[in-house]
Amino acid sequence: MTYTFPHDFMWGTATASYQVEGALHEDGRTPCIWDTFCTLPGAVADGSSGQSACDQYHRYPEDIALMRELGVKAYRLSIAWPRIMPDAGGTINQLGIDHYRRELDALREAGIMPVVTVYHWDLPQYLEDHGGWASRDTALRLADYADVLARELGDRVGIWTTLNEPWCCAYLGYGNGEHAPGVRDYGKALAAVHHLNLAHGLGAQAIRARLGDDANISSVLNLSVNVAETDSEADRAAKRRADLIANEVFLGPMFEGRYDPEIFEATKPYTDWSFVHDGDEERIHQPVQSLGVNFYSTTHVRHRGPEAAGAATDASRLRRNPMPAQDIVEVLPPAGELTAMGWNQEPRGLTTLLTELSERFPGLDLIVSENGSAWDDEVTLEPDAPGGKIVHDPKRVAYLDAHVRAVVDALQSGAKVKGYFAWSLLDNFEWALGYSKRFGIIRVDYDTQERIWKDSALRFRQIVADNAI
Ligand code: GBH
């Protein structure tokens, strides 16, 4: 059965500044925490950095031309904070602003709406030197930065997104140390959670103060779809605990102006939450038009008895469970056919997530702001293809189809889903995994910067053109 999407459904592709731009030393940009992290031995799998990435800083006209060919209506990109505010003294870097003005203008001329993420993980190093997200001041600085963006770029942006995936920034950045800045301290990770929440609230306030109530403001979360292994009381308690730490800690203050007190109870061994000041929960609770949801895979959990306590030191478990020590949650190894990231494929999880969110927050628009999969691609020579090359990526095509169908299922059960963004437009710098994992629907040859179409891009173009699947 063919399903036709609403006429204004927003099809797009997504990237992030550090992952695609390159040009790290150009036009007055100063280092961010990822520049520093990439110099630490062993921090990034292939020893690489965002140094050249996809060179989108220079090649954005070519990439916009690709998006025109794809037919997408929107591009979700992020702005590099250290290009705009390169030092601790509050200097505003005009060269950085000019660059993004040109890029946003080019997008709009191509009929592509810019969806701009204020912060997708490239925190200026000078802020990390003063405590980074573990410090309250960083949230205030984000508000200053968002104010500058709204003032300088406000008329060019379709949708503002304050933050991308604070879960990753806090728990991977300050908890297990897998991401920059590489801190391992769960007390700091929870402080980072709160300061990121606060940054969202203050950032949204700053943008609205500049642009008025019409400003279209959102935030992007990677909510965990936790599935209890059995229906037992204990396994359901484990799921509930996992939901609290991964999801409620963001949703509660953002949409209800409060942290569930159970969160304080569950995290007692790590912190007393004294970093939450009077009025913070209301500061975080700002009106937003939409919530962006990034979805890749699901997480299966069960109750962990004391005998499994040793599992907490296992690296892959640490990655999957934000609160490993003294915890009742055991994360099960992913099952079924795994992607090159080792993640499971469970599109039904996306349907569940969207449906439950819409039931809980009926007035809120939802956007699938990232969805995609990494595979070990190979280039095939094919004279008829543009450039004489193509990547046949049937698994990415199947993943794409299944997840777009999962969105359809959610729409049909009443979820308010307004758009879908493929992660990613291009292969790019996959954080701690460097260039070893490829998420693009278009391949990047990192030696030549050539862009090579994949079957998944052709498939996405078809879905967008038909506005149907
Ligand atoms: C996103 O993060 C980022 O926004 C983006 O920059 C990044 O390139 C992209 O996704 C691809 O990684 O180990 O099986 O339990 C992804 C967030 C959080 C998704 C952890 C997978 C664990 C899966 N990820 N989650 S598992």
UniProtKB/TrEMBL annotation:
Residues the record marks as active site: 165, 370
Residues the entry annotates as binding substrate: 19, 120, 164, 296, 423, 430-431
EC number(s) from the headed UniProt entry: 3.2.1.21
Any one Gene Ontology cellular component term annotated for this protein: cytosol
Signal peptide: none
Protein's UniProt keywords contain DNA damage: no
GO biological process terms held by the UniProt record: cellulose catabolic process
Catalytic activity: Hydrolysis of terminal, non-reducing beta-D-glucosyl residues with release of beta-D-glucose
InterPro entries given in the database record: GH (IPR017853), GH_1_N_CS (IPR033132), Glyco_hydro_1 (IPR001360), Glyco_hydro_1_beta-glucosidase (IPR017736)
One MF term in the entry's GO annotations: beta-glucosidase activity
Alphabetical keyword list: Carbohydrate metabolism, Cellulose degradation, Glycosidase, Hydrolase, Polysaccharide degradation
Annotated Gene3D superfamilies: Glycosidases (3.20.20.80)
NCBIfam families xrefs: BGL
Family that this chain belongs to: Belongs to the glycosyl hydrolase 1 family.
Protein name from the UniProt record: Beta-glucosidase
Organism: Bifidobacterium subtile
